[in-house]
Amino acid sequence: MGSNFATKSRNSPLGSINRFGLVVSCVLAWGSVSFASESYFEETITPILEDSCYDCHDYESKKGGFSIDDYFTLEEVSANKEQWFKAFKNLQAQVMPPPEKEPPTSADRQILLDWIKKDVFKIDPSNPDPGSVSHRRLNRIEYENTLFELTGIRIDAAELLPADDTGYGFDNIADALSISPLLLEKYIKIAHDVIDRSIPSEPYQLPQSRLEQKAFRHPDGREAKNQLRFRERHEIQSEFRVDLKGEYRLKADFNATRFFNFDYGKAQLRIFVNDDLKHSEEVIHSSESRRVFEFNANLNPSVPYRIRMELEPKYDRNAIESSMAIELNSVLIEGPLGDSYRALKPEYARFFPEGPASGSKIEQSGYAHRILKDFASRAYRRPPSDSTVDRLVSFAFESMERDNLSFEQGIAKSLTAILSSPRFLYRVEDHLPIEPGQAYAQIDEFALASRLSYFFWSNMPDKTLLDLASKGELRQNLDTQVIRMLEDKKADAFAENFVGQWLQSRDIPLIGLNERAILAGDGRPNYRYRLDGSVRRAMRTETEMTFEHILDGNRSLLELIDSNYTFLNRDLAEHYGIEGVTHRALRKVELPPDSYRGGILTQATILGVTSNPTRTSPVKRGLFILENILGTPAPPAPPDVPELEEAEKQFADGHTPNMRDLMAVHREEALCRSCHERMDPLGLALENFNAMGMWRDDEAGTEIDPSGVLVTGERFNDIRDLKRILANERRLDYYRVVSEKMLTYAIGRGLDYYDTHTIDSLVAELDSEGGKILTLVNGIVNAPAFQKTRIQSSQNFPIALDN
Amino acid sequence: MKRRQFLKSLGISIALPAYQSLTPKSLAAASGAKAAATTASGAPLRMAYCYFPNGVNESHWWPKGSGSDFTLNRTMQPLAKVKNQLQVIGGLDHINATAGKDGAGDHARASATFLTGERARKTAGKDIQAGVSIDQLIAREIGHQTRFPSLELTCDTGRQTGRCDSGYACAYQYNISWQSPNTPVAPESNPRLVFERLFGGGPIGQRRENLQRRREQQRSILDFVMEDVDAVRRQTDYHDSQKLDEYLESVRAIEKRIEDSETDTETPDPNVATPEGIPESFSEYMALMYDMMGLAFQTDSTRVATLQLAHEGMNTSYPEIGIDEGHHYLSHHKEDPDKMEKIAKIDHYYLQQFALFLEQLDNMEDVDGNSVLSNSMIIYGCGHCDGNRHTHDNLPIILAGSGGDSLSTNRFVNHGALPMTNLYLGLAQKMGLNQLTRLGDSTGALANV
After folding, report:
1. What are the backbone angles phi and psi of residue A379, rounded to the nearest 5°?
2. pLDDT value at residue A407
3. Label partner for A490 (CA 20 to 30 A): which of A48, A418, A697, B253?
4. Which residues have CB under 8 Å from B49's CB, separation 6+?
């Protein structure tokens, strides 16, 4: 058998009958491939390929550049896994064979799919190839979060660092995250600045307490206004107490605001403690926005004090209009004054838990060792070797000696080095020992802790995770840790970054949408509407909350597609035309049974990010659903997309073609059809939602017809039908996409042929559990791709080492 | 307006302390064998590449007439004042940006091919591969002569999430400079950070010291982390080491720059305020980035720069000029006159800022008495000609500056159908890279420039 391929393509390339009839036995030619595979191939697979594929994928037609005749031997089939991976995906999504051809029975389809996995991809279901992830550089978000966790200082990474390149739709893909001299320079500078800011030069401070703005009221008890505008007189006050008798320093910290570049407004600010005037100052225009007013007061414990502030306008309010205002941030109460009251600053204790260094050099060195080992363990997310810590300690002391630095400054040097190290900037993973000859190993528990924490939190592992990892108990407590992590507030990052990228809801706050032009296109040129920042934020939150609701209650992922609820506040409900919502915070809202809303497809995030700035784009929307909900692979695109104007000419009778007309003609072109048949019905079903996601019955007077047929044959009348179809008949496609997207995000690499079995298992489990989201999450964290790594022989990587 | 003041002081009244100190070095270089990236008169020779997205409206782009007998068309009217300092170039192609067997993805290819001439590997993330870009090749050869081997800038901050163009990784669309075939050079988008990197942070008078301090900090840290790389490599020897190599190359590049800067006489401290950040108006943003490039050239901080004005396929609108629709959407105008008119308007808008930049460079006196513009070669172009049909031939290219009197300016020349990379080779040779004989699909150095 088998040589039938060879026979045909070599000897009779033009022949098309009896291709599989000629069977010549040549077992030897199969080399290492087992006889079982070979005969199975011959007896079972070949006839199905012949029936279902060979019409188009023979030597002559070679449609899509794929000819089965190119494969003489099973060995060759297996050698071109990339090509068969495409075939696999097309078969699985049922886009091959195309609709006009006779499809294989579902049993045959399954036989082919299983054969590809087993004999072509050579996947061992009991020990699948976990793949290998390059050292993953922290992306901007992870970097910012991790730095904050380590130092308590939050930087604005989006401003300081260049945007990360994304791959496979996500910004945490190892291969796509590169580094350049510019970036490394920035990392060093940020490390330096952050350490500089987080280590106080002075270890001690006086006891402090703070009266926040919220604590202040009008004398009559009303809540105090945030902004004290210079146009009128203001009076605010608050009570406070102290614990010890003595002299205190009070600092009233204000922000001054103004609209004009120059402003003649002025006002007298008077601050009283009880009825003693403690400070009086004329506030006028200045370029400094922060104003701090300081004064001392002698205070006793057990007596309540009242701090009162008066702001008196001091300009002619009839002659000029002032835009100036001051806003109180807080009043800091410091004291009692005197060295004996001073204590270690909390931010100092963060790095120097034992206080300032003292004693002999050996003692100091021991202290430095403890400080640096602790910090490096957290920053590297695994314990550093002794030699690494030794190097850090010597680096600190060398710096102290060479540059005459204090102990703190020397330690700061080493901390900066830690934050510039590849061990901090990259997620360096290690694995457990393996038996010789094994190709895959379990990653060690520190690597596992990082995989989990960056997956759910976009942040470093916390103490609990690192402690478990160091005891080697993380794996055995995986389930409870996953639940704990998802319940943590830090898991908001999962929705923000995973859903935010999968469903692109992260883009809605900034995307260009022109309200006037969109409404004019809808036929409402006179409707004034502004899509302001708060509505856009509500949109984004709606999508995130929908996901979090499912996650929190371990609900079905199908609710993302079709549900009878969504999350709204007054503004967003108004935007959608939903009545009866008055709350300002987003909350779960039950939708009426006939509502078109419910599910992400009818949320403004997706509807907006798939639109052009002035109008909807059914093609982009259709493509979005294909790629992110159905997972239909894209057919090879035509080299030159033909002109739509050819289509337009056919409407020379004078009637203005609408979007549907134009696209219908477009689809008649054979070249366009293969793609547009898949995209257009999906996009057109959403035409009742304008580019901002608002409902419309017609487009400038032309009624919208949202009905259509999917390329897989299902008919629908409107988006409600389509949602039901997606959540029922097409649910396995959807489960597959979510599984692929989430696994990609979790492991930071694109999926390959060897992942197909893992995905199939995830999909099967999901389906048997009714789509419950934790089934997927747990499936992923237990998958070989998440738990293990491929081991390559180190001999492939010559290393030049001199120490 | 802060920025306009900035421009003014930059173009006209600048008195750089380092300016004098530059002279002997450059002229000395000229007295012997001609140094690379130096004009015949001994001044620095600069090379820049500015990229704009989505092609042009050709009917208003191409000049009327040919050779030196030509008139600027409507779109290029802003360039009238510097017309005699530039050439409009037609007939250059990027064959490797065409679909070939790769199908859709013209936008990704247009930018990935633009400076590399290579066909970008179609991948959504794994094994990204374009080619080393011409600016980086030049920087490798001549970069040691200046404080920065090259400068990579962008006016594109918005990065849409999700997938990029038709199965191509986003790296292809958001970067035009590539340091290795697999590693793009992420451009800087914040003008303040560009400035601080070039001249140091803080107020005038303290920057040099700040920069010096920053270098010291870097140096000791780099020494330290270098050893870490080896340790990590040993620990993870089962692993692909490409990412560590990238890191190590970055360490070495910074170290080399620090070393080079030690022999540098003095870092200039321009007598202008540090820019505050990214302006809201896009035209001001472009102008400010051009300012940064101009300042870097004037102070001879670098001789090679790239500026990506916006990423290929960008679909935002231009409210400043009353364009509500997205740029990419409009570029697929299907011959609709209204949309084509808007494309012409956008082309004009971009060129206005470029023209102002050229005028500024023209007002800057260089060490040899010529203008900085005259001692530069500045390419302005796009990897698409007709954005509607995604064509990659007859690319819209302007070459400004006379390369130190070595280019034939003030003409409109059509080269027929030659690789764009031939032009790059021709100019690279003027930069001193005589041994560079091939780039992407090049067939030889373009002689007629």
Report:
1. -65, -40
2. 94
3. A418
4. B114, B115, B134, B135, B176, B305, B306, B307, B378, B379, B381
Using a CB-CB cut-off of 8 Å, the residues of chain A touching B120 are none
8-state DSSP, A757: H
Q: Is residue B436 part of a domain?
A: no
How many domains does chain B divide into?
Answer: 2
Q: Let me know if residue B447 belongs to a domain.
A: no
User: Does residue B443 lie in a domain region?
Assistant: no
pLDDT of residue A502: 96
Q: Is B97 a residue whose pLDDT tops 90?
A: yes
Contact A688/A696 with Cβ under 8 angstroms?
A: yes
Phi-psi region of A240 (alpha: psi -120 to 50; beta: other; left: phi over 0): beta
Same domain, B30 and B47: yes
Residues A536-577: tens digit of each pLDDT: 999 999 999 999 999 999 999 999 999 999 999 999 999 999
Q: In the prediction, which pLDDT does A624 show?
A: 93
Domain span holding position B258 = 201-266
Q: Let me know whether B30 and B46 are in one domain.
A: yes
Query: In this predicted structure, what is the pLDDT of residue A653?
Result: 54
Is there a single domain that holds both residue B342 and residue B389? yes
Q: What is the pLDDT of residues A563-619, one digit of tens each?
A: 999 999 999 999 999 999 999 999 999 999 999 999 999 999 999 999 999 999 998
pLDDT at B417: 95
Rounded mean pLDDT, B39-60: 96
Mutate to test the interface with B, among A135, A140, A442 (most CBs of B within 10 A): A135
Query: Is the same domain home to B172 and B242?
Result: no
Q: Which residues of chain A have pLDDT under 50?
A: 1-35, 639-640, 642-649, 793-803
Is the distance from CB of A513 to CB of A521 less than 8 angstroms? no
Q: Does A173 touch chain B (CB under 8 A)?
A: yes
Window A:388-427, CB contacts with B under 8 Å: 388, 391, 395, 399, 413, 416-417, 420-423, 425-426
CATH of the domain at B132: 3.40.720
C-alpha radius of gyration, chain A, whole number: 33
Last residue of a domain, one of B247, B266, B285: B266
Same domain? B171 vs B190:
yes
Chain A residues whose beta carbon lies within 8 Å of the beta carbon of residue B160: 504, 507, 511, 609
Q: How many CB pairs under 8 A join A and B?
A: 252
| Structure confidence at residue A4 (pLDDT) | 38
* Among B residues 230-259, those touching chain A with beta carbons less than 8 Å apart: 230-244, 246-247, 249-251, 253-254, 257
| pLDDT score of B188 more than 70 | yes
What is the ipTM for the molecules in this complex?
Answer: 0.87
Which phi and psi angles does A138 have, rounded to 5°? Answer: -65, 135
A68 and A49 Cβ atoms separated by less than 8 Å: yes
Q: Is the pLDDT confidence value at B298 over 80?
A: yes
- Provide the β-strand partners of residue A556: A772
HEC profile of A459-491:
CCCCHHHHHHHHHCCCHHHHHHHHHHHHHCHHH
More confident residue, A64 or B276: B276
Sort residue A61 into left (φ over 0), alpha (ψ -120 to 50) or beta: alpha
CA distance A583 to A733: 37
Last residue of a domain, one of B244, B266, B288: B266
Q: Looking at the structure, do residues B77 and B17 belong to the same domain, yes or no? A: yes
A793 touches chain B (CB under 8 A): yes
**Residue A75, exposed/middle/buried by CB under 10 A (0-12, 13-18, 19+)?**
middle
Residues B102 and B236 in one domain: no
Please say whether the beta carbons of A374 and A386 come within 8 A.
no
Q: Answer yes or no: is B6 within a domain.
A: yes
* B256 and B163 assigned to the same domain: no
Burial of B32 (0-12, 13-18, 19+ CB in 10 A): exposed
> Are A2 and A26 contacting, i.e. CB atoms less than 8 angstroms apart?
yes
CB burial string A41-54: b at 16+ within 10 A, e below: bbeebbebbbebbb
